[in-house]
Amino acid sequence: MIKKISIILIFLMGLLTSCIESNQLEKLAIIHSRGIDVSDDGQIDATMAIFQFQAQSEEFTKIVTGRGSTIKGTINHASNESDYKLVPGKLQVEVYGAEVAKDGLTPFLDTLKRDARVPDRVYLTVSDTTAKEILMTPPKKITTNIGQYLQGVIEESAANNYFPKVTLQEFGTTANMAGKDPILPVFSIGDLDVPEINSIAIFSEDKQVGTLPIEELELFNLMTRRVEARTLEITLPTEPLRDFFVKEPKEDSIHTAYTIEKGKSKIKQDKKDELSFITEINMDLSLVELSDQIDLDNPESIKAIEKEIEKKISSRYEDIMQQLQEMKADPFGYGIIYRINTDDGKLEPKEWKEIYPDINVEFKVNTRITRHGTINI
Amino acid sequence: MDINVNVKSNVQIKAFYLFYVIVGTQIGVGIMGAPRFIFTEARQDSWVSILIAFVFMSIVVLVMITILKQYENADIFGIQTDVFGKWIGTILGTLYVLYLASSLLSILLTYSQVVKIFLYHTFPNFTLGAMLLFLTIYAVFGGIRVVVGVTFIFFFLTFWLILLFYDPITRMEWTNLLPMFQATVPELLKGARATTYTLAGFEILFLIYPFIQNKEKIKLPALLGLAFTTFILMVTTVISIGYFSHKGLEHVDWSVLILFKSVSLTFFERLDYIVIVEWVMVILPNIVVLMWAITYGVKRLYKVPQRISVYVFSVIFLVIVSFMEYEHHISIITDYVSQVSFWIIFVYPLILFPLVIIKKKWRKNKGSAAK
After folding, report:
1. CB-CB neighbours of B227 under 10 Å
2. Which residue of A has its CA nearest to B184?
3. Where does the chain cross the membrane (chain B) (predicted)?
């Protein structure tokens, strides 16, 4: 009995060797990041930063490009250029050209979702020109390879609570969700000739409908999660604070900076009017910079500053909200609150896009300046 | 055929192991895609559906235990022969065995499909089937104690997978579960019915009962087993609803496997590869228990020795698995198994119950009349 079984098993072993395609590390090129552009004739241009592990070669990273009508086709095309087999198993960053993002990302997300070998943690980003330009940054300007550099920027800014890292899974989930739209970081070539995040791409479902300046990011962060240890810069008018200045102020406005010690927000729907929302934002601030001297020992002065900050931030939020309503994009997720309070809990994205421009949002900002550093003026 | 089974004390098992047998037979390939099917029916209230399924399942199991208690040491085949007579009893028994066989087949097919999509596109079904069936034959040759041992060991070897959910939980959008209690009662019941394929497996109680040593204690481990499976199904469903968007979850096959795709450790980038391979350990208890049940049923019904029927069935399975390629065909088989299992394991015991009681009363009356 045992003999028989072992004979069959040995026989089977012979068959098994050819079952699985072999992937030898030395013969693979691992795609680390990829830029997607669409050319005028409708073909996809992919620029890929790859890793190769070969004993002889000194450079283990390389940029290859491919053209094709599908993304897999571009990979095939690029394989010819590198005489390696390109594999997407560790894709980390995907950059979309500005045109691509405007036309919608769905066609390009398909293969990322369908192919089980692509990881779910790919970071999605948008370029303000073409993706190729970002990936073709001369390697001399940055110490690492471009792919790792982009990944580093995204992860570092996320670790500092600067820009939330948006993965494939999050983008896909939010883009499909009724009542919330995704945002992505926009990379552009900055003054130092290296890519940097310079604005926020606002999406309506999967299409980019506009951008907002990166300075508003803190306000975005406050709306979506708890914010801690972030710096906030606010310019206040001097007029309402006139009584508290140590010397007569020279200018009309005073520049101030704060560290947000704790900040969070809450959205409530008005019980009587389903299209009215109240957003409460609570912040504990610590004053870290003043461009002119104010007598901070006077509790009235702190109160007056708090009040001015509240006014200022509310008006900044109202500005943003107006722009977002014009773009018909809802990154703050008012639609979720709306959906939860409907009778049947159902809301189609299209339906919400109709309603959204008509909603009224009242921003109630409460700030407390709890500390003002080691000096009292 | 004898209604009661004579079981030697050296092949008996303790009632305590019933927990592992039930969990091992219930959790398998079904759970990989279950959230989607439940969600399509009951939307964000899917967890209520699962609780309803649990209550219903517990009632069925208690009824099954009551049926079995009417006899000294019988299994489903003996009971059917007693209630319906020799001919109908054998036919019904054969149907039962065929159901078990088709459910085993659907497991093999689904798993080979998953391996092809997630790991190796060129991996032949034949090889995968052969490897799994070799292990199965090996285990079934060991007899009931080895079969139960397999479920026991693999429970602990796979339990840690649930810890990996820490990552998808942090990525969840909790508002997807709101508003609660929106589904109507029919929707909830439909959702509960969608769990059938995943929760099927406790019918093994009907077959394994004669082998249990301390029969008076079987209620607790059996119900605990059901509760554990329900808990796992509920956790995976709730996480899936939060992790995917509503629109997204309706279109995702094997959502539970995709949950593992975002897990990554510093020393291991793609943990999902391990999870899919590890899933062999989840389905192996399934296959082993079912194979044992099939061959045991054939032995009871037709007196064919288990060591012969296990080979015959393995060859049949291997041939079918090698030729089934289309995903479409596989889902037809799975749907069919899921339909049939609803009637056989959820409804049938409730029909059998009054018949067994009537039969017992009738026999008692006849006995007292004869006196």
Report:
1. 15
2. A344
3. 15-34, 46-67, 87-111, 123-141, 147-166, 224-244, 274-296, 308-324, 336-358
Instruction: Over range A4-9, report the average pLDDT.
Output: 78
Instruction: With respect to residue B155, please indicate whether it lies within any of the assigned structural domains.
Output: yes
Is the Cβ pair A89, B179 closer than 8 Å?
A: no
pLDDT at A17 over 60: no
Minimum CA–CA partner of B243 in chain A: A173
As beta bridge partners, residue A364 has A280
Q: Which residue has the higher pLDDT, B268 or B153?
A: B153
Give the tens place of pLDDT for each residue, A283-301. Answer: 888 888 888 888 888 888 8
pLDDT at res. B311: 93
Q: Where are the domains of chain A?
A: 25-214, 226-371
- In this structure, is residue B77 part of a structural domain? yes
Domain CATH number, residue B359: 1.20.1740.10
Q: Is residue B2 part of a domain?
A: no
> Is A173 a residue whose pLDDT tops 90?
no
CA–CA distance, A283 with A239 (Å, rounded to integer): 24
Evaluate if residue B52 carries a pLDDT over 90. Answer: yes
Residue of higher predicted confidence among B21 and A136: B21
Q: Which of B115, B131, B247, B318 to mutate to test the interface with A (most CBs of A within 10 A)?
A: B247
Helix axes B30-42, B46-69, angle to 10 degrees: 120
Beta strand A123-127 pairing with A207-213: unpaired
The residue of chain B with its CA nearest to that of A341 is: B179
Distance from CA of A54 to the nearest CA of B (A): 21
Kindly compute the dihedral angle of the four CA atoms of residues A270, A274, A275, A277, in this order, to the nearest 10 degrees. 20
Q: For tokens 């070998």, name the residue.
A: A117
Q: Which residues in chain B have their CB less than 8 angstroms from residue A121's CB?
A: 262, 264
- Write the class of the CATH domain A226-371: alpha beta
Inter-chain touch B120–A21, beta carbons under 8 Å:
yes
The C-alpha angle B75, B81, B82, rounded to 5 degrees, equals: 90
Q: Does residue B351 have a pLDDT over 60?
A: yes
Cβ contacts of A20 on chain B, cutoff 8 Å: 120, 122-123
pLDDT band for position B287 (cuts 50, 70, 90)? very high
The answer to whether the CB of A162 falls within 8 A of the CB of A187 is no
Looking at this predicted complex, what is its ipTM? Answer: 0.82
Q: Residue A195: what pLDDT? A: 83
Q: What angle do CA A356, A361, A363 make, to 5 degrees?
A: 150
Query: Which residues have C-beta within 8 Å of that of residue A149, sequence separation ≥ 6?
Result: A137, A142, A194, A195
Question: With a CB-CB cutoff of 8 Å, which residues 127-146 of chain B face chain A?
Answer: 127, 130-131, 134
* Sign of CA pseudo-dihedral A107, A109, A114, A117: positive
Interface size A-B, in CB pairs within 8 Å, comes to 78
Cβ contacts of B178 on chain A, cutoff 8 Å: 340, 345
A173, A332, A338, A339, best to mutate vs chain B, most B CBs in 10 Å: A173
Selected for mutation to probe chain A from B112, B137, B246 (highest A CB count within 10 Å) is B246
Q: What is the 3-state secondary structure (H, E, C) of A176-224?
A: HCCCCCCEEEEEEECCCCCEEEEEEEEEECCEEEEEEEHHHHHHHHHHH
pLDDT digits (tens, 9 = 90+) for A256-276: 888 888 888 888 888 878 888
Instruction: Give the model's pLDDT for residue B96.
Output: 92
Residue B315: pLDDT band (50, 70, 90) is very high
For residue A19, the chain B residue with the least C-alpha distance is B123
- Report CB contact under 8 Å: A15, B127: yes
The domain tally of chain B equals 1
Q: Do A177 and B176 touch (CB under 8 A)?
A: yes
**Domain for residue B160, yes or no?**
yes
Most confident of A341-345, B171-175, B234-238: B234-238
Residues of A with CB under 8 A from a CB of B: 5, 9, 12, 15-16, 19-21, 89-90, 116-117, 119-121, 167, 169-170, 172-178, 333, 336, 339-342, 344-345
